[in-house]
Amino acid sequence: MSQPASQTLPCTAGIGLRAPHYREVLETLPQLGWVEVHNENFFGGGAPLHTLLRVREHYPVSLHGVGMGLASTTPLDEAHLSELSKLCDVVQPAAVSEHLCWNSAGGWVVNDLLPFPYTREALAHVARRVEQVQERLGRQLLVENLSSYLSFSHSEMTEGEFLAELVRRTGCGILFDVENLYVNVRNLGVDAEAFIRDLPPDAVKEYHLAGYSVRDGCLVDTHDHPVYPEVWELYEYVLRQLGPRPTLIEWDSSIPALPVLMGEAAKAQQRLEACRAGR
Predict the structure, then answer these.
(1) Residue-range definition of the domain harbouring residue 270
(2) Whole-number Cα distances in Å, 218 to 19, 107, 130, 269
(3) Over the stretch 62-92, which tens digit does the pLDDT of each residue have?
(4) Residue 199 DSSP symbol
(5) Phi/psi-derived region of residue 232, left when phi > 0, alpha when psi is between -120 and 50, beta in every other case
């Protein structure tokens, strides 16, 4: 296996940059540590890519994928991978990430991020695909833990153990979504402290924070609310255990005014600075 290229983001708070805020960000150039975009929105070039390149002149950019389906059993989509490779070549992002999930089978593609059993067979399968992606991109891929609404009785390891072994086999990094972990704690009874202990600290390169919705007593990872106090509390615990990392505020539905989003990023920045100061 060739060694993936290392990636760096400033250890500050950033925001998920979505279309409603493109113009305002470019016109006002607010104080942002960095931004993250969904890479599929820029496949094919054109005006969206031109806008992203203008943003890239002012802020570090992270590319975050939602459509690769690393755990799917169908072959990796060559067209998708080709577009991502071209986008990386043009944008030269500070980081590239993807969800640990599946989204296709038998010729069908599901527009969702679906869980799978954490077995040794699945680990070998996902590891091969992560290596394939890293070889194609010539850089390290960050893999994100998943919010789930069911678990599999025949899993042979926890998600944290799966991620740790995936890192060991492939050299990939981890995008630790703190809100996803909290959703799993509430929905599935996942042991948050054990999950955090299982992660190799040096492999954790980025944190995500977001707000969930509650439907029939189930927490749903909708990214349409401010970060809840319980998630801030878990984030503070994560910072104490693993240390500060670049932290992103995600808000993908019912997107608020830019100052609201920046206010959430400021809360994350305060906690990062408190952690560095030992408070």
Answers:
(1) 13-276
(2) 29, 30, 31, 29
(3) 999 988 888 888 888 899 999 999 999 999 9
(4) S
(5) alpha
Question: What's 33's domain CATH number?
Answer: 3.20.20.150
Q: Is the pTM of this model over 0.90?
A: yes
For 180, phi and psi rounded to 5 degrees? -60, -40
Task: Please report whether residue 107 resides in a domain.
Answer: yes
Number of structural domains (the chain) is 1
Residue 6 lies in a domain: no
* Helices 178-188 + 229-242 axis angle, to 10: 120
Cβ burial of 85 (10 Å; 0-12, 13-18, 19+) is: middle
DSSP at 161: H
Q: Which residue has the tokens 């030992």?
A: 278
Read off the pLDDT of residues 113-166 as tens digits, 9 standing for 90 and up: 677 789 999 899 999 999 999 999 999 999 999 988 777 778 899 999 999 999
